[in-house]
Every structure is written in C-alpha cells, then in structure tokens.
Amino acid sequence: MNKTPRQFSQSRIVSRDKRSRFDIARKGISHSHWRDPYHLLLTLDWSWFFVLIGGGYILINVVFAVLYLAGGDCIENARPGSFWDAFFFSVQTMASIGYGAMYPRPDCTYTNILVTIESLTGLMGLTTATGLMFARFSRPTARVLFSRVAVITVQNGVPTLMFRMANERYNQILEAQLTVSLLRNETTAEGEFMRRFYDLKLVRSQTPIFTLTWTAMHPIDQSSSLFGMTPESLAEAEVEIVVTFTGLDETVSQTIHARHSYIAEEIIWNQRFVDILSRSRDGRRIIDYRRFHDVIPHP
Question: Per-residue confidence at 5, pLDDT binned at 50, 70, 90?
C-alpha cells in the first residue's frame, strides 16, 4: 500500500522548487534586485540568465547601429541608410571578428570614435559575461533527494519521526551534517502571537561518508517538542519541519548545502518507509529509487 501526498494548502517557509528558496513576501523594504545586479545575475535561473545576456547584447548592438546611421555614409561597402548593415557591422566590431567586408572610412572621425568606444564596450562585456559564467558554473550545488513525506512510526518501542535522503550523484559527500527544526504557531501568556523554532535532536546528526541513503530519526520522547501532539494539533499549529543538510563535496572540495521542509499534512502517522536496499549476486549494494518515496502501514 503506497500513499501519495495530497495537494496542501498550508503555506511553507521553504519552497518545494528545485532551489528550495525561502518563500517569504517582504513589505516595507526599499531593496530592489536591480540595485544588486551581480547577485541577481548569479541567482537567476539559467534560462532567464541567457535571455538577459542575449537581450542586452542585441540591445547594445541596436544602439550602436543607430549611432552609426546617424553619422551618415561612413561605412565602406555598406548600403546607404541600411539598418541591418549597420547592425551587423556593430556585431563584427564588438566581437572583433574582422571580416574586412565592411570597415569605417578613414576620413570619418565620428565613426572611428564610435568604433573605438564599441571595441572597449565589447571587451568589457566579454570579460564580464565570462566572469559571470565561470562564477555560476563554479558555484557548488547539491543533488540531495528527500522523501516526499515524513512518517511517525514506532522504532524500538518509541514513537519516532523519520524521513530519508539520498545523494543523487555518484560521488561522495564527506562530513555530512543534518539539522532539523520544528516551526509552529504559539500564543504567549500575554496573548502575543509567535512563530517559534525548536531544535529536534536526531539519533544520528552527522555521518563521515554520505554515499547510500540516510534515514533521519527523531525520538518523540518527553524532551521532544513533538511529544503529545496529534495530527490535528500539528495542523492547527501549522507545524513545519525544516531540514538543513551540509557537507563537503569530494569532487570540488567545497561545502554544499540543501534544504527541505515537511508541513503537517506531509507527516504520515503509523507508516514506515519501504526497504529499498538490497544486494546483487556479486555482493554489491543496490538502491531502488523507484520506491524511495513509498510507505506502508506499520505492522
């Protein structure tokens, strides 16, 4: 019996997109992404990054093409008044292609000054775009797979919150560490509403090598912030379990991190995860990712 999580209405602090961004709306702050263009270009999705770079490249060439046309017939072998000839001449100048079919007339100072300015602009633009591309490619990322749901089941006679993770890449993550926090709504004795954080103690919060799967377990004993809670009270308090994973990627020797969260309706009671580890005939361990998210009733 497999259970699939439903569509949930409760808002979460950690989004479920591929970047696990914090889903928080901000009001009353004057900061704009366009005031920090370097950070914006590093955090944009790749598709928007290429659209912005390509659009800026075309726009700059259009501006220089118009400026070349304003100087009159100063480009040899270009059709008089042709925007496209001026545009492609700008492209050749900015990229230093140097085909030689079109070139500025020596007696036209205005056009030669424009060529000088555009050559410098192209050089600066090329180095900037190269630096941004390198910074984006060199930024370490994690491919950590989290189970879609968390379960609360009995483990060694104690109710235990459990979820599991796996490294989707074939490399190893060294000195992996895991922190789990509980977020819930509370009202103080003075009637003040608060969104409180509580740390959840794990049976094992770190591992020297993260190469197979990792099932995180939090015993719900009397010291646990989840002690005495029910599915109804979890939903009423808008509980969210926030998971933060950090480790050292052996390939790039840099620290990587990943985030995930589970809201109340994604915490399934009296279920356990399906076993996905087995061995082949030659003794190698096998992980069956096809059942990674599957749960079954606790016997």
Answer: very low
pLDDT more than 70, % of the chain:
89
Contact yes or no for 284/258 (Cβ under 8 A): no
What does the DSSP 8-state code read for residue 19? T
* Contact (Cβ atoms closer than 8 angstroms) between residue 152 and residue 161: yes
DSSP conformation letters of 258-278? EEEEEEGGGEEESEEEPP-EE
Q: Which pLDDT score, from 0 to 100, does residue 114 have?
A: 93
Rounded distance, CA 149 to CA 120, Å? 55
Tell me: the pLDDT tens digits for 193-214? 888 899 999 999 998 888 878 9
> Which of 80, 23, 85 has its CA nearest to residue 259?
23
Distances (CA, A) of 25 to 12, 14, 225: 12, 12, 28
CA distance 131 to 153: 50
pLDDT at site 22: 58
Q: Which helix (H) or strand (E) holds 242?
A: strand 240-249
